[in-house]
Structures are given as C-alpha cells and as structure tokens.
C-alpha cells in the first residue's frame, strides 16, 4: 500500500521529464550545424615609429578571432578580440581583452578608432581603417615587431 502514494507522485514527474525532453528536441530541430576547416591568416609585422600596416581586410558578416602580440624587448604583450564587420550597419563590432586595456568592447566605423592594444604600454594598436578593415598602428617611439593572427 505504501507504493501507491509513491506511484502517484512519480508518474506525473516521469511524464514531465519526458515532455521536457521532447520540447528540448523540438527546439533544436531548426538548428543547422556546418563543420569546416577554419581559415587562418597570419600577419607578421615590423613597424617603425609612427608607421601603420596596410589595411587588413575582414570577411563580411563573419565573426573573426584576432590574436595579436608585440615582441619588442620591454614592451612585449598580447591582446585578443573577436571582430565582426556588420554590412547592414556599416561598422565594425568587437569584444575582447588585452594586457594593457583589460576588457574591451565597442562598435564604430570611424577611421583611427582604437579596437585594442597589443603591447605592454598601449602604443601598438589595432585601429579601424574602414568598416571592413583594420590596421596595426605603432606610436610607441620605437620600432616594433609581432604577429597578428585571424581565425574564421
């Protein structure tokens, strides 16, 4: 007789779990997953003081992971940011962090806008060039060397 109250409680609980699993599976029915090898672009730079790189073009409407470092003695550091070239709004959007800046986030299309610093003193920056490209800019007072990697 003690099993009857347990069955009365357990039956609705089991039914609720089954319905939850069903709704969860139905909610995923519209998702599409595509697996492909990522594209990796590696840019090695050597910039004199007050120099900038050539524009680095971003794919449109695709999130791009950008990893950057500066390796000059006494100023070496890193930064990483995910950038999106938004063709509808005509601007770049980004979020990330660096040794100098800490957490960063923003959106803009104005040339020269800092996206993130990739050195220890905040003088080697990724900056907006156009709504679908950025440059590496050096205002450190010395020549700098490093790498910027794009993965998408």
Give a description of the structure.
This protein is of the alpha+beta class and 152 residues long. It has a single domain (40-151), classed as Sandwich (Immunoglobulin-like). The protein contains 1 helix and 10 strands, in the order αββββββββββ. The model has no long low-confidence stretch (mean pLDDT 87).
Which terms summarize this structure?
152 residues, alpha+beta, Immunoglobulin-like, 6-stranded antiparallel sheet, 4-stranded antiparallel sheet, 1 helix, 16% helix
Instruction: Name the structural class.
Output: alpha+beta
CATH topology-level fold name: Immunoglobulin-like
Order of helices and strands: HEEEEEEEEEE
The structural domain count equals 1
Helix content: 10-25%
Query: How many DSSP helices?
Result: 1
Which CATH class is shown?
Mainly Beta
The average pLDDT score comes to 87
Radius of gyration: 24 Å
Largest sheet: 6 strands, antiparallel
Which parts are unreliable, with pLDDT below 50 for 5 consecutive residues or more?
none
β-sheet strand percentage: 35-45%
Strands of the largest sheet, in order across it?
1-10-3-4-5-6
Second rung of CATH, namely the architecture: Sandwich
Overall geometry comes to: elongated
Number of strands: 10
Distance between the termini: 63 Å
């Amino acid at each position: 007789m003690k099993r009857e109250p347990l069955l009365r409680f357990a039956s609705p609980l089991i039914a609720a779990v089954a319905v939850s699993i069903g709704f969860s599976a139905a909610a995923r029915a519209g998702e599409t997953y595509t697996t492909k090898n990522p594209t990796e672009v590696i840019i090695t730079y050597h910039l004199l003081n007050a120099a900038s790189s050539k524009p680095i073009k971003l794919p449109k409407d695709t999130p791009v992971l950008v990893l950057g470092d500066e390796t000059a003695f006494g100023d070496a550091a890193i930064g990483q940011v995910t950038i999106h070239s938004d063709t509808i709004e005509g601007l770049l959007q980004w979020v990330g962090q660096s040794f100098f800046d800490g957490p960063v986030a923003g959106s803009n299309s104005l040339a020269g806008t800092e996206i993130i610093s990739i050195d220890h003193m905040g003088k080697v920056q990724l900056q907006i060039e156009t709504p679908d490209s950025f440059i590496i800019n050096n205002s450190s007072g010395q020549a700098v060397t490093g790498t910027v990697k794009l993965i998408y």
